[in-house]
Write a structure and sequence with these properties.
Five copies of one chain form a homopentamer.
Chain A lengths: L1 E10 L11 E8 L10 E5 L8 E6 L16 E6 L2 E4 L9
Parallel strand pairs in A: 3-5
Antiparallel strand pairs in A: 1-2, 1-4, 2-3, 4-5
């Protein structure tokens, strides 16, 4: 899973069957410093997310497991809201 | 899922069984500014897409869920047409 | 799926059970201009491909769907031959 | 699978059903020299991992196989602790 | 699948159930010239591989298909040994 920020909305009226009513948001993956990390994704939202929310997303096939109907062609879903994350940069001095 | 633009057609007459009749298009993934983001893909189209259309695509195993016959070796499918997308860049001042 | 060019052969005599007889080829993913795009892959071939052929490949779990026996640990398969592809670069003036 | 270092914690109270109680950690993928390699991930932990631990993670759909309940939308899980890893750089003089 | 070279060993004593006894190796993906291509992976080995061996690996969910027990959270497996690979660089003069 990835940390991500909700940065926009997608209006898509003509869709294939099975994906007719999902709410779609633009999310930007973040690294552990809150910086952009990777390409913007279109994610399904069932967690009542809004613009600016810090979330964690799941991508790939398992994304559909978050939806009521799992046979939906979806590969990114917002699975939770992140209140806070802490990073301790100096963990583990050496590689081994 | 990713935003993408339909940029071309693929003519592929000799195919394996199970993928005999799918319409194949070249799509270019886009970021939230409409700029190219990632490698061009060959995607199945069941949404009546045309050249220049702004779409959202699904890649990976779940792509086949969009097709009538799900046991098709396909890993990118156009799942909807995007009329509009809005980005609010200044959401979330700090990372946390 | 990706466009790709067959660029070589792999000779692999000692293999795990279930992957004993598949023909293996080296393929180079291409972008919409026919330029190299991404790392060379080892792909199964059931489409009678030869050196220099322009093909489209499927990667990930769904690759096995192309094979007679789907419980094979394979993640790239040549699923068709591409006779031609056309790109129209000037489609869609603005992002939205 | 990838080598990774546990570098932080994620506090996420509001989550979708099915992912309610998993412990979430920030992990940084490492290369064979212990250097950062790739984007930081949010991983489920069922191996009692702590900050600074060297672990190996599994990403993608198969991550859920590590959990008691496999129908959980999860795509990264810590599957073991690494006590030590050895690299022999000079193996195989030529490519073939 | 990818060409790869076995470059090291991973000692991981504390693991989750289901992954208790697999032999783990560090492998470096290679391109068609035998040069490093992509991040080092931790791969399961059931093909009796040793340091320096040239192998081809399978990553993603289908990796588990190589193992006796397929419900193992594994995403990279050595599926065969490569005796030789040949590349013909000058195949296909033009892109189309």
């Amino acid at each position: 899973m990835h940390l991500a920020r909700v940065i926009g909305r997608v209006v898509a009226t003509r869709r294939i069957t099975g994906l007719a009513t999902e709410k779609l948001l633009l999310v930007r993956p973040l690294d552990e410093h809150g910086e952009s990390a990777g390409n913007t994704l279109v994610a399904c939202d069932i967690a009542n997310s809004g613009l600016g929310d810090l979330v964690h997303i799941c991508d790939g096939r398992e994304s559909t497991l978050a939806l009521a109907e799992t046979y939906v062609p979806v590969d990114a879903t917002i699975v939770g809201h992140v209140e806070q994350f802490e990073v301790q940069e100096d963990v583990g001095g050496s590689a081994q």
